[in-house]
Structure formats: structure tokens, C-alpha cells
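Posting this for the archive.
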Amino acid sequence: LHRGTYCYLTSKLIQLQQKWDDDHDPTKHIEKNRHRLWTFFSNIVLGIRNIKLFELELANQLNNTWKEGFFEILIQDRKTDVAKQQWIRNSDILLDYIDNEKLKVLNESEDGSLGNIKQLLMELKSGSSFYEKCVNKLTQKEVNKSVDRIWNFFNESLIHAIEEAGKQAKDSPKNCLDAFLKTLHEKNLPSSIKSRLPLTTNAYGSVDDQPRHILDSVVDKLKSVVPNLTSPTLLLQGNESTEILKGIREDAPNNEAKPRCNHACRLCGAPCFKHAGHSDYHDFYHQPAGLMGSRWNGTNLIAHETCHEHHTRKDQFFLHDDQKWHGYDEFPALFNYSVPAYPSRGIHISEYLMHKYHEEIAEFYGIKPNPPVPAAYCEHTLNSIKEDIRKNVPQEI
């Protein structure tokens, strides 16, 4: 325990040291700003001075940072909204969304004709990846539906800040360039934009002896840098959901507000229903292990049972890691899992798949069918499953 605590604290201190070095290392700072410094000195060599140099420097920085600033606002806005969604903090509701996604992949028709079961099994082979895919898809939908609104807000706020900076500079009796910069720094602009703005105007000289209308060209130049997009969705890179979920995990006020854990049971593939980053045992609504290719030793027959049922029967499983047989009561020591318990939530879609596609699943894993499946599995229908899902998942999802 002491050794583990020591290693954890050492790792955290090293991370903090690296972050400090990244923020304060002069060499890294110069390297990071190499392009900006080169542009600045190139303009000096060309004889550009005073307000024109000030104008080009600000325009160059804004041109390099407006997109980053937009994504900063976008992610912060969507992070707040996504954190309020029930599927983030409620495992039962999230599992309904995941089951709905399984039906989409399966693409089974209402008449019961064969769906794309092989594709579904391919995706379910990594339960953790399928979980992440579903959560990222839900999050990205929240991004897509609001991108136009957020772009308009960002664009209007940035243009207003530029115009206000020009007004304050023109009204300033002296040090008008300082007034311009000071106003921009005081505005509620994204940090990725403000952090690249010059801190002083020493390099640009004074223009207080010139007519104030020369500042209009600065305002016009900066406004021209910000594009007037009609389809801001084209800016999206598709990875916004990853950043949003990362932010929610890091900034959640408590464990209940965190996304769910994405760890999948090694034997049956069911996702852990606890919050992300929990320190206690993983726990699952275990599903028929045959969905992950589990088979009976000696006969090679597909296994219908869940981990809980195997535990109740005192069955054993073979672990390739150590080439030994183990009982299901060893879950805590072997995997950091809770001992399998009877699921408090229905696993209807998993049981339905085991009944409906029993032979196809066995064929997919190269094992033998094992009829008949438990009678309870046969009670579920596609319509009844969809009705259950629709209690928590909107029709349009």
C-alpha cells in the first residue's frame, strides 16, 4: 500500500513538473512562437513600423487563433450541457442507449429476417470500444445540433470586442495603442486568443500625434480576419466529443456527475455500470457469456449462462494469463471485479440475441451450437425490447 501510494504521488509530481516546464521553459516558449517571431522580424526587415506593424501583428495572431478560440467556446458550452444529460450519470439509461445502438447495427427488420449479426458481433468483441463509440456518438450529436448557435455567439462577441477596442483607443487622450490592447485583454475572449495577444505596445512606438481615424484600419483588418461562415459545421473535426468527455471527467463536482466507467467484463463483455475512475471493484449486469465466444471445455459448445449463473453453479473458467482454472468467486482477486450477482436490471437484448441468433453466434466464434437456450430467453421479442428502450431513448435517436 505504501509503495503504491509513493509511486502514485511520484507520478503526479512528475506530471506537475513537466507542466510547469512546458509553461515556463524559455526554449520551449521560443520554439512554440517561432512562426510568430519570424513573421514579426520579417515585417521589421521590410520597413514596417508603428501602427501598421501593430495591425499586422494583431491580425496575424488572430488569424492563427480564432479557430482554436471557437473550439474552446464550443467545448466549454457543450461540456456544460452534456454533463446534464441523464445518460452521462445514469447507467440504466445509458445502457438503453447502448442497446438502441446495438439494434441499429443489427439492422433487423420488423418481419424478423436475418439482421447484420456478424457486424454486431465484430463490434461487440471489444465491449469497451463499443461503449466509447456509443457515448462519443451521443456527445457528438449534442455538438452538431448547437454548432451554428455557438459560432454566431463567438463571431458576434469577437467582432464586438474588436469594435469596442477601436472605440476605446480613439477616445483615449494618450497611449491609444495601449488602450486598444487593454480593452481586448479585458473582454471575455477565449484564453487561446487572449494568451497570444501582445502584452505591451513598446515594439510599435507611439501614434498619439496622428489622427485617431488611423485606428479604423486596425479594426477593419482584424474584423476581416474572422470569416463569416455560413456552414460552421465544416469546422468540426469529429473529435470534439473526446475533449468534452475528458473535461467532464476532470471537472465533475462529484462522482455521480461523471460519465460511466467503460471497462468491459473479460468473460462476458458487459460494461461496468459505476462512474469513471471509481476506485472500488468493477461491477456489471452480466450477460450470456456466449456472446463473447465462451464455450464449454471438452465439448466446445457455446455457453448460454451469465457469469452470475456460472458462479451459482460453482463452475470454473480457464484463464489464459496464468494457464489455470479459477472459480467465479475469485473475481475480486483476479480482475478487481465484484463477485457476480443477480442483475438488478434486465439484460433482455442479450438474451434475445442468444435465442434469436444462437447458431450464427456459434458459427461466428467457430464453436458448436448448444440448443435449447433457456426458455426465459425465448420470451423476448424485438417489439418488446424496442418498447422498453423507448421509455428512455427518444424515437429520433
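The chain has a mean pLDDT of 88. The first strand starts at residue 316 and ends at 319.
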